[in-house]
Amino acid sequence: MNQDTPKKPPDTKPWGGRFSEATDTFVERFTASVGFDQRLYHHDINGSIAHATMLAKVGVLSDEEKQQIVDGLEAIRAEIENGTFQWSVTLEDVHMNIEATLTERIGITGKKLHTGRSRNDQVATDIRLYVRDEIDTIAKELTRLQTGLLNVAEREAATIMPGFTHLQTAQPITFGHHLLAWFEMLQRDYDRLMDCRKRVNQSPLGAAALAGTTYPIDRAYSAELMGFEKPTANSLDSVSDRDFAIEFCAFASLLMTHLSRASEELVLWSSSQFDFIDLPDRFCTGSSIMPQKKNPDVPELVRGKTGRVNGHLISLLTLMKSQPLAYNKDNQEDKEPLFDALNTVKDCLRAFADMIPAITAKKESMYKAAKRGFSTATDLADYLVGKNIPFRDSHEIVGKLVAYGIDSGKDLSEMTLEELQPFSDVIEQDVFEVLTLEGSVAARNHVGGTAPQQVLSAVATAKTALSTR
Ligand code: ARG
Where is the Fumarate lyase N-terminal domain positioned along the sequence (predicted)? Predict the structure, then answer.
């Protein structure tokens, strides 16, 4: 302990009764969370109002006392919002700062607010309320991004580009189809988020420190006042459970993984080597030394920020590991990773939702790229199969034609019938229908296929689904 640990000053800590000396000044700073948990103030006040309202309903507080508390809390909320509220590290966290100020203002009634409650169920309630609101904001941004993807996919339903495996040209696809692949990833993320919300949306209030309380509380009522679906079922679990936060981070990690994959493609596509898209200038930055540069910073940053979100997931899993029941101070460490994950996800979604509708497809360049690399080779093999050649043999024939194409510098669609026929005499004039890129994509006309018609119908289905959210 510090030499200069002050003698116990009167009544600075709401829990100071059994202590005979003041907290070491370093320990005070070390254990305080007010620096980062003050952002819970709004939900802390809402939770306290619900608690006081419930206490009045069951007769623990008079209506007058309840009203004094509510008015006092609303005045504090206003001060916090206009920046005049004095936060104090001595008062450790957001909960004690608000409660102590309330008592200072309204006197003895303020001290009654904490009846039948502990900071343990209070903080669990606050975080759930906070995360629930953030989930709703994130759901809206995700929907905005998905809507943007659908609009671009619709516009580019027939735009042809190369599809890749191993980052080598594989088969022609439509750009709309590619964007719908991103849409599907995000759709699963959305479903995971909604599933997480169900488990977030339960009220731990009333679990008190760990065992519940002797007051005749009405947990269903306070849960209802806060818009929770129901009270949680076990008081020990209620104060110690943070898996709703871990679940959120798991959702966030997968979402960021998907955004990082899309980012990577945007970075590649906007390079002069690919030249598939143009990212508007407002999403890019220049170089201080190379005047020609236009760098895709936004997708690069989104890709980079995936790392910190993955880190937060691991932090929370490790934080929770081996914790005995019930509440432990370890849990105070849940906030910074959680808050940063929430912020990062919101920012990245916002960037993407703004950027996606603004990208331009460089159609000619995509088309040219799709022509290179013998992307219709599979179509030719399928054509030969249609003329009764076994697939393995047709694969061999097309392989030889590709070798010829490499030597002669010609794509399959550029060869004449006279050049094609020596490789197989079943090849006729109709081969050119399948060798064109348009023919190739149009032929993949089944659910989930790349044909423009399928893209349009997938967009229509998805738009209907989004409209019912
Ligand atoms: N600041 C604490 C946290 O974030 C609040 C709960 C503290 N409870 C306690 N018994 N020390 O977890």
Answer: 17-311
Residue 119 Cα to ligand 1 midpoint, Å, equals 6
Q: Is domain 120-215+229-367 in CATH 1.10.10.10, yes or no?
A: no
What pLDDT score does 413 carry? 86
What does each C-alpha distance from 65 to 51, 53, 68, 113, 165 come to in angstroms? 13, 10, 5, 9, 69
The pair of structure tokens assigned to 46 is 């809402």
Nearest CA to ligand 1 atom 2: 332
239 CA distance to ligand 1 middle (Å): 10
CA of 275 to the centre of ligand 1 (A): 54
* Active-site annotation, residues: 166, 287
Atom of ligand 1 nearest to the CA of 209: 10
Q: How confident is the model at residue 219 (pLDDT cuts 50, 70, 90)?
A: very high
Contact at 8 Å (CB) between 270 and 277? Answer: yes
Cβ of residue 332 lying under 6 Å from some atom of ligand 1: yes
Q: Is the CB of 93 under 6 A from ligand 1?
A: yes
How many helices (H) and strands (E) in the chain? Answer: 20, 6
Query: Taking residues 158-168, what's their average pLDDT?
Result: 97
The whole-angstrom separation of Cα 228 and Cα 235 is 16
Q: How far is the CA of 123 from the centre of ligand 1 (A)?
A: 7
What are the boundaries of each domain within the chain?
Answer: 16-115, 120-215+229-367, 372-467
Check residue 3 and give its pLDDT. Answer: 47
> What is 42-84 written as a DSSP string?
HHHHHHHHHHHHHHHHTTSS-HHHHHHHHHHHHHHHHHHHHT-
Q: For residue 93, how far is its CA from the centre of ligand 1 (angstroms)?
A: 8
pLDDT mean over 54-79: 98
Q: Summarize pLDDT for 376-412 with one digit per residue, the tens.
A: 999 999 999 999 999 999 999 999 999 999 999 998 9
- CATH, domain 372-467, list 3.20.20.70, 3.40.50.300, 1.10.40.30, 1.20.120.1760: 1.10.40.30
The distance from CA 319 to its chain's CA centroid, rounded to whole angstroms, is 21
Q: Which class is 16-115 in CATH?
A: mainly alpha
**Tokens at 386, concatenated:** 């249609």
Q: Does the model's pTM come out above 0.90?
A: yes
CB 375 near ligand 1, within 6 Å: no
**3-class DSSP state of 169:** strand
Instruction: Choose the residue to mutate in 38, 121, 123, 125 for probing ligand 1, maximizing ligand atoms within 8 Å of C-beta.
Output: 123
Q: Which of 332, 335, 338 to mutate to test the pocket of ligand 1 (most atoms within 8 A of CB)?
A: 332
